[in-house]
Amino acid sequence: MGKLALGRRGEASEPDFFRGVLGELVLTFLFVFIQVGAAMTIDGKTNAGGNLTAVALGQALAVCVIATAGFHISGGHVNPAVTLSMAVGGQITLFRSALYIVAQMLGSSTACVLLRWLTGGLVATPVHALAAGVGPIQGVVAEVVFTFSLLFVIYATILDPRKILPGVGPLLTGLLVGANSIAGAVLSGASMNPARSFGPALATGVWTHHWVYWVGPLAGGPLAVVVYECLFMAPAGAHQLLPEEAMENNLTKSRETTFFNSQPLNSSQRTRIRACKTPNKIKCRSDPKYTWYIIHIIPNPIRTFICMRISAAGAKTDAGGDLTAVALGQALVVCVIATAGFHISGGHVNPAVTLSLAVGGQITLFRSALYIVAQMLGSSTACILLRWLTGGLATPVHALAAGVGPIQGVVAEAVFTFSLLFVIYATILDPRKLLPGAGPLLTGLLVGANSIAGAVLSGASMNPARSFGPAVATGVWTHHWVYWVGPLAGGPLAVVVYECFFMAPARTHQLLPQEAP
Fold first, then answer.
1. Are 334 and 404 in contact (CB under 8 A)?
2. What mean pLDDT comes out for the span 490-501?
3. Average pLDDT for residues 245-261, to the nearest whole number?
4. At 299, which CATH number?
5. Cα 332-337-339 angle, rounded to 5 deg
6. Which of the listed residues 133, 243, 286, 323 has the most CB atoms within 10 Å of its CB?
């Protein structure tokens, strides 16, 4: 078991230190904004079973995506219990962990205060509370057990060298959070995260039994670390790597050491320049017949048509069960369409994504303009066809929720789209990404989580094309500009923030043997 470390001389001046602290601030803000937004959406519904399913789904998806996206930045802790537990295990210094926790509290508080303003105070901000018949001591024990399971899984799927699926630890952690959310509904709510509980308490001023959500997680997490380190962690040299395991270990080692140790790479390791080239980052070439452009642009309306046909067909959110189905549909279609189209044109199907990648220099402005035209054509065609196929049944148009004004709607769309592009950069464009090739899948999962959280605000369009098609088909343009201004502001902002603060600096990625020329 690692020893507690107070800190190192000059640690605060290390390149990764500021990036890690700022990363925890941004990641926790996005994480809590999505999770609490989802809980606010469900709070006023009547379908209890569906509500619990939707909340658990939103919790699981948010953790899966945010933890994976932030893995190479700061570790993606977004949880003081995780941070303290890593310090107890000697994975990070106490000095770094203290600043991480401060950043997490600030991010959570900002997210909850913003959510309260966005809803005009008309929707109650849900605060973690003990279920009927559950006393504070039982609540503490419940939180200890739930957080113990969380850290046990983190150690078993991320830190233990014998883990069966390298690189998927954050995804498995998210699934556990979803399961615990269901199990904990009848006990303490299964917070497992003091920051997650602190933000709503601060925004509402409700502190009843709040201490339970600090004592439980901050006891259960470190306890899991001690137990795992003493009884289950593989001793050095105890596991003989099979050939295929050795190769997989080489692929993930450089990513996973950054997560907890947060050590800057030494000069001998800094061998690769920052130049994130994705399959769709192709410079404009001269082609008198424009054949090359046609090949890459035609699939855009096709994929947008498919995306619109599936996602627009069931956009009613009158009950918790319906909301769950819609969110799942949104997540699945983005996962599939973005992955299928990634090698063709990037699978954008979204003007906000296209414009943001142009701002980041990933595609040319000329190509982005044609992509956007193709996306709008695909969206409009899909919605007009849907209206004809259904015999004129109502086509759902994005609209602001009750009590949400246009300015709040713009801010909400900007935040949701910011999270979308942040995840795209972290899981696709950053060379330090944890799971190469899984970026489109993670993007789809985030869209599902945002769909739940956004139902009580603006609907979380994040996609002007997605909003444009139904407006064309129905002729309803009320506040339509919100769904252009918000995404087209939030997306490029995320690109600028990520490029300036989080993208791998020059020569920080060590070439693996199979990557070397």
1. no
2. 96
3. 48
4. 1.20.1080.10
5. 100
6. 323
